[in-house]
Structures are given as C-alpha cells and as structure tokens.
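Researcher: I'm preparing a figure for a lab meeting and need a structural model of a single chain. I don't have an experimental structure, so a prediction will have to do for now. The sequence is pasted below. Please return the structure as tokens so I can convert it later.
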Amino acid sequence: MISISEFPYVDRSTPLSGLLAVDRGQAGLRPGIVVFHEAPGLGPHVRRRISMLAELGYIALAADAFGDGGKLLEGEAMSARMTHFMETPGLMRGRVNAALDALRGRSDVDGARLGAIGYCMGGSCVLELARSGAEFAGAVCFHGMLGTAVPAQAGDVKARILVCAGAQDPLVPPEQVLAFEREMTAAGADWQLITYGGAAHSFTNADRAPGVTPGFAHHPAADRRSWRAMRDFFGEVFA
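Model: Understood. Here is the structure written out token by token.
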C-alpha cells in the first residue's frame, strides 16, 4: 500500500516540509528519488509522480523548494516567487542539496542508489543539483529550463544526466539546448538529451489542457515515452 505523508527537514536554519511516498508493503533498503515540483508548488502532478515512483519500489520525496511547505500560488505571486528562486543560485543549490541529504539520511534508503527528477522549474533544480557536484547516481529533467548562472566546470558533475525536452517548448529555445550540450560536454559529464516532436512545455502534466496557456500542454505520447526513458535510465544507473 502506498503511503504519502508530510516529511519535515531543514536547509540550514530554514524549516522545510516535503511529501514522502513509500510502499509500506516492502521492506529493506530501497533506492531513493527526490522529486522537484513545478513553479506553482506541491500540486497534484508531483503527488501523482511520487506515488508512481513508490509503486515502482522507490522511496520518493517531493521536495519543498520554496520553504513554504509547497504552498500553491498562481499568477504574479507565483512568478515573483519563482523568479527570486531561479535568480539566486546559492538559495537553489542549498535547497536541492538539503532535500537530497534528507532522503539520504533515512534508514530505509540505500544511499548508494539515489536519484533526482524534476519538472519545469524542478527540472532546472535537478540540473543545478548535478552541477553543484552532489554525490548521487542519476538526474532526470522533464521539460526544464537548461540555462544556468553557474555553468559546470570540468569534473563537477558526478551524476549521470537525462534530459527529456519538448521540441515545441517556448521556454527552451534551440540555442539554450545547444549551450547546455556544450556545457555538459566541456564538463565531461555523462549526459543524454531526448527531444519529443510536437511536445510543448509541461508535456508530462495531464492537468495542462491545450490552448489555455500558449506553449503549455499535456502531450500523452511524450509523457509515456519520457517516463519509460526514466525507468530505463534508473535501471541502468542503479544496477
């Protein structure tokens, strides 16, 4: 049975409150996955994903990126909160590493098999976690922005990286993709990037109805294919 419960942890002196999904029917050490949410906060999409990961045998932590318990915001309030977070690299890197360390510290998590995934803004979080030099096995970025204020240097990136991107994503133009590829290659990272034709931003989120926000829409085929790619990726890096 999948159990989802609040999970308190801290980033230095800042209290954080994520969500932990565990299959209570399993015992012993299991691999752990940190999940970073989209800009609005800890909404239904990320809750579904941690439950899906728990069903696959992982212990999944939906991280509290903003330090407000994942409170859902929209419009200008959401944009202001996200902009501050994205434009403060030290804050972002502190938060993502705090979540990874909190999951690593659980007695039922295998510290040698840790991964991280993220969606949209959360995808950027995953890449910053990898760029920071954190010790974990694999990072998966779903329709996340690929740019950074602090590019990885040679030897920085220890995790293997999978990026799943939409070819029609207005937030990830071709020049950003090319810059990311060059950055990862120069850093000596083990990386791969899959681009899904016809897919816009938020292609994994079934709550994103086409036409409501230009450039944002669920794409069922890309959603299925990217989840399968993630499963294969973790099957390899955790082997």
